[in-house]
Amino acid sequence: MTRVLVVGSINMDLVVSSPRLPRLGETVMGSGFAIYPGGKGANQAVAASRLGAEVTMIGCLGNDEFGAQLRSNLEREGVDIRYVREASVSSGIATITVSDCDNATLMVPGANYHLRPEHLDEVEQAFADADVVLSQLETPLETVKHAAVLAGRHGKPMLLNPAPVIPLPEDLFSQITLLTPNEHEFLTMLAEPTGDWRKLLVQHPGKLVMSHGKHGAYYALSSGELRHEPGYVVDAVDSTGAGDTFNGALAAFLPLGLKEAVRRANAAGALSVMHHGAQSGMPTLDELEAFMGRPA
User: Fold this and answer.
1) SS3 readout for 203-258
2) What superfamily in CATH does domain 3-18+30-291 come from?
3) Which position among 102, 121, 196, 244 bears the catalytic label?
4) Any known ligand binding at 155?
């Protein structure tokens, strides 16, 4: 059982279904509304936990009703929340508009931005106890950087899902073991808006895994050979949380080697888009193994 430490965000997702995404200044009549637990950190923690990992979460919730609900949800999912703090502010929220399996998201960080580097120092033992550390960019950048320092101090691989995407500072890039952008985030992360992603992958062998939706994922071996792990064909209804499922699975299965971890992460991500909501469709280990008996 892989011990995964997730340092990241915990949000409540307010999801609107719409026949199409509104243009600037336009009002579109929606067709449905739902509230789901979310946040990239919590989503990835839940994904890894359902796939059999022993997951511990470091994060921050507000002292509001959303905070209480989100804390209870993580407990139900088997995530160790002893290091989830509470701040006297509102919990993070994300408003998500879903249309024809695409989505557009606006996040208000709230309590997530009250997770500071010194809070990680207080729970440094969690880094020593982990097999893999996983983070994202919905908490302060300084906190993510410090998580990378602590992971390195204890010799633990650190995965970073660079979302919401920014050009990554060199000091953070150099400290991360594995970066996991999607195809939209890849060039922005490297500050190469007109670059060729294939060439850039080869220039950073073993450092980057680029997820590409239904097309699967791409990465380069230490030899410089570009590798492609194909995706799985499914009937998709909602892509929200697919990337988080991919990342949680990648962390859970990383001890099996990069090729196998990516293969399983592709399958987990495919399963997740067959249901509405970020966490609702995240598969269990049994569901994943049954699904992977099908041809890719």
Assistant:
1) HCCCCEEEECHHHCEEEECCCCCEEEECCCCCCCCCCCCHHHHHHHHHHHHHHHCH
2) Ribokinase (3.40.1190.20)
3) 244
4) no
